[in-house]
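Let's practice the habit of predicting before peeking. Look at the sequence and jot down your guess about where helices and strands might fall. Then scroll down.
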Amino acid sequence: MPRYEFRCRACGDTFEVVRPMSEASAPSTCPQGHADTVKLLSAVAVTGRGAGAPTGPAAPTGGGCCGGACGC
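Done guessing? Here is the structure:
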């Protein structure tokens, strides 16, 4: 389940809430009991190759603006 980060406007506390994506926009109460919260925008970086990613000579190796195919 995804985590959503919120900040309380009353006390300034930042906290996370784990909930289904279908409830992503639902309001949340801070741990101190304040209801005036705002959901923060979070960036996620994913690196590495997952299962099933191509390997060997045909695998993209990165580099340049074209993925390294032209050696730029």
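How did you do? The chain has a mean pLDDT of 81.
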